[in-house]
Amino acid sequence: xxxxxxxxxxxxxxDTLPEPVLETILCCLPTEDAAxxxxxxxxxxxxxxxxxxxxxxxxxxTLEPTSDIASAKKYMxxxxxxxxxxxxxxxxxxxxLVMDDYWQRYNYFEFYQIILHLSRKHIxxxxxxxxxDDSEFIWYKLPESVFTxxxxxxxxxxxxxxxxxxxxxxxxSLQRLDLSYVKISTKxxxxxxxxxxxxxxxxxxxxxxxxxxxxNELLKCLPVIEDLTMSGDVSEWLVVDSVPxxxxxxxxxxxxxxxxxxxLVGRHGSAFLLCLIKCSPNLEHAHLEMEWGLDFSAVKxxxxxxxxEHLNELDVCFGSNELQTEFVKFILARSxxxxxxxxxxxxDRKQDSKMLKTxxxxxxVSPGVNIYTWK
Length: 375
What we know:
The protein has 12 helices and 16 strands. It is an alpha/beta fold and about 375 residues long. Helix 5 runs parallel beside helix 6 (about 110-120) and helix 11 runs parallel beside helix 12 (about 350-360).
């Protein structure tokens, strides 16, 4: 059993740590846990109030019934978050708030006040807001004060309805934007993206936008994009317009492309996919999970000049071994630095073995490529 002197010695060893080390330790903790370090000693009482990164997860206690009073009190509520902000003695550079089935209608005002406080008092650079709520299955409107955080470099929003104010002047420093399961019109989305001139990383998963835009219109808003992910319901609002041999904007900076569960059909869809790849000459990693219906044989001759000098990793799942074989053969012949091809298979082992044999015999310009299948 530890004696009082042993505990005192441990506290003294903590107190002698350099300030940057202490800050790093506290930043790695959820903010409610960082606040609990105030009981360690008098020297630690206010250390947590100066850390620049705050992370909160609010949970609905009524969904987790317990007779343990300590357990019932372990989660912070939205009023606690606001009180923490008022106690702050230093800048806030990163702020994360996850509403894990926590929403109640009367909480929205406090949530609005929290974001308004951040916009007026702090230079926030990274903001993550997750309004996930399975219990009511509704989207709360994102506070307009988010769009006054002009110093943002990273913005991640999940399960909100988004409409920026008419006076929105853009995010000139924003480099990463993650919109997951949000409601936003394509008009608002295009206006938002066109006012983020430094955007390098974009992830889109939009729910029922109500209107449509073309892929060409979207790509025109992404002149310096390096990492592009489009998932799920994107295919319901993002339409393939007429496909030229070249897209209006060459994606010369694009290094990672993820098309997840997109629906590109027939000759038109195949032409767009190959055109997108052709206009991404510096692509390094492609993850392509597509619906049935592509037809590469009808268009591959038109894109015989495709050359992927930097591609080293390819993941594909097209729902058909014939489509996957045709596409991978096309890429193998045009990617001199390709190292790994990973194929998600959907049929039996015999068909998988046949596909692998075909691909291993296919012409390639990268002799060291490894081809894998998985289910």
